[in-house]
Amino acid sequence: MKTADLEYKDGDLLCRGFLAYDESASGPRPGILLVHEAFGLGDHVMERAKMLAGLGYVALAADMFGNRQIPNNFDHAIEIIMALLKDPPTLLARAQAGLAALKALPQVDATNIGAIGFCFGGTTVIALATQGKDVDGVVSFHGGLGMLPPPVKQGVKGKVLVCTGADDPMIPAKDVVAFEEAMTEAGADWQVISYGNTVHSFTNPGADGSLNPAIKYNAVTDRRSWAAMRNFFEEVFA
Questions:
Q1: pLDDT (tens digit per residue) in 14-49
Q2: Is residue 211 pLDDT above 90, yes or no?
Q3: DSSP notation for 161-227
Q4: Beta pairing, strands 137-141 & 58-61
């Protein structure tokens, strides 16, 4: 497996993503952009990029904060992501810069592009799809649904899979219902899987509940949601 940092720019901002792919494979293959959590591009999302590469995809973990910035603490992380979430054009442009870098790689079939995201990243990839950006399918793992811009009616190009915890207080049931209704009204191809006995950050083994009891890894839900993602992309790239 080939892994390397990949520098690209969003305007004047230098971003340093993380690239992973199987260098023994021949020919272009689907590319998947990964978008990290509130704490920046760290070990969790880089490990997920390697896992996607092991499935035969070219995986690029985007650097949404620029210069591979890692927030100093939880409050700093929230400050950074809220600034982006409250400014959808900037958020989308930052994500699209990562998509452009992914599509430009010679190993990538630019006609088959997906994206996945975790927490803040899940919200980001949903926004890419609902605003009609050029992705074939996106998967959100414990991504927030309450701050999304309304989906473009009849303009959601990519299929959408949302994997969420049924007991996650950060993604209440009312937000899930409102999202489902908006996606149906927009004529989108969407799925929501709600996992019981599951709170926030269920995919991240580093989430041990010490920061917040509602931020905790769940091995069973992690395995189930990853399997759902695999099936989803097999369909999307069929």
A1: 999 999 999 999 999 999 999 999 999 999 999 999
A2: no
A3: EEEEETT-TTS-HHHHHHHHHHHHHTT--EEEEEETT--BTTT-TT-BSSS-TTBB--HHHHHHHHH
A4: unpaired
CB 31 within 8 A of CB 103: yes
Cβ-contact 198, 165 below 8 angstroms:
yes
216 bridge partner residues: 208
Report phi then psi at 108, rounded to 5: -100, 135
pLDDT per residue as tens digits for the range 118-152: 999 999 999 999 999 999 999 999 999 999 999 99
Question: Each residue of 54-109: pLDDT tens digit?
Answer: 999 999 999 999 999 999 899 999 999 999 999 999 999 999 999 999 999 999 99
pLDDT of residue 119: 98
Domain residue spans of the chain: 2-236
Residue 233's identity, in one-letter code, is F
Any idea which architecture 2-236 has in CATH? 3-Layer(aba) Sandwich (3.40)
Whole-prediction pTM value? 0.97
Is residue 20 a contact partner of residue 2, using CB atoms and an 8 Å limit? Answer: yes
Q: Which run of H or of E encompasses 23?
A: none
> What is d(CA 28, CA 97) in angstroms, rounded to the nearest whole number?
20
From first CA to last CA, the distance across the chain in angstroms is: 24
Q: At what angle do helices 74-85 and 120-130 cross, to 10 degrees?
A: 10
